[in-house]
Amino acid sequence: MDQHTLLLAAAPLIGILAGFINTLAGSGSLLTLPLLILLGLPANVANSTNRVGVLLQTIVAVATFRRRGALPLAGSWKLIVPAVVGGILGAEFAVDLDEALLRQTIGVLMLVLLGVMLLKPERWIAAHAVPREPRLLVEVPLFFAIGVYGGFIQVSVGLFLLAGLVLGAGYNLIGANALKNFIVLVVTAAALIVFVVNDQVQWTLGLLLGAGQALGAWVAARFAVQRGAEFVRWAVIVITLVSAAALFAGVGS
Asked: What is the domain range of residue 107?
């Protein structure tokens, strides 16, 4: 059995792990993007195809959070709309992708985020009765910028959305995690349209990975609701640390 066949056989298992990681925090694309490139896709096509699995996993995650009453959608349009607009713009930029410098920048931002989670844990696990009213002058540009990044390359966008939702918009961590998945869902759907129009999606590989990612998302969403905010916070810390190390080591280059 050659390397290509082995990678194809491993794709659903890698998808399960990526879907689990993405649903709890983010950075599952650090697994799926290199896999798609190793399977022979150009970087921009791999980046586009990766969105198929992300779309499927977020559909499953959002449905699971919603069934368990953990998805706080009230008033969230003020965050979702700028993120979607940014996602479309970012996807347009990504058609001709050059990711080397961006990967290093992501690593630095993730280490900053890790420091905040370790030094101010109470801000991540505090249970707010309701999110505070969005501060439009801060949060609209913030979520627009996150949307641009998510549309552009996707890697670790969930971590940045979690930070914006918890530290910026005042959501508790479980609610933020559920809403993060919903925002990723709509941003990914918008970005995927751009990539399909530009004929940059390899559907067979995308759906193969996506089947595993959907299963991983279902398991992770149930874990998040059952285990609570402290479990999710430590999952985010571990995933952030490993992801930042992988980025600096040049994974996917």
From this structure: 8-249
User: In this structure, is residue 1 part of a structural domain?
Assistant: no
Residue 143: Cβ-neighbour burial (10 angstroms; 0-12, 13-18, 19+): buried
The vertex-246 CA angle with 241 and 248, nearest 5°, equals 100
- In 3D, which of 195, 55, 179, 37 has the Cα closest to residue 103? 37
Which pLDDT score is estimated for 124? 53
Distance (Å) of CA 166 to CA 75, 124, 139, 171, 225? 15, 6, 12, 5, 16
How many other CB atoms are there within 10 angstroms of residue 94's CB atom?
A: 25
Give the sign of the dihedral formed by CA 52, CA 53, CA 54, CA 59: positive
Residue 171 located in a structural domain: yes
Q: What is the pLDDT of residues 70-104, one digit of tens each?
A: 898 888 888 999 999 999 998 887 766 665 655 66
Cβ 73 vs Cβ 182: under 8 Å: yes
**What radius of gyration, in Å, describes the C-alpha atoms of the chain?**
17
Residue 122 lies in a domain: yes
Q: Is the pLDDT of residue 126 over 60?
A: no
**pLDDT exceeds cutoff 90 at 232:** no
Residue 102 or residue 20, greater confidence: 20
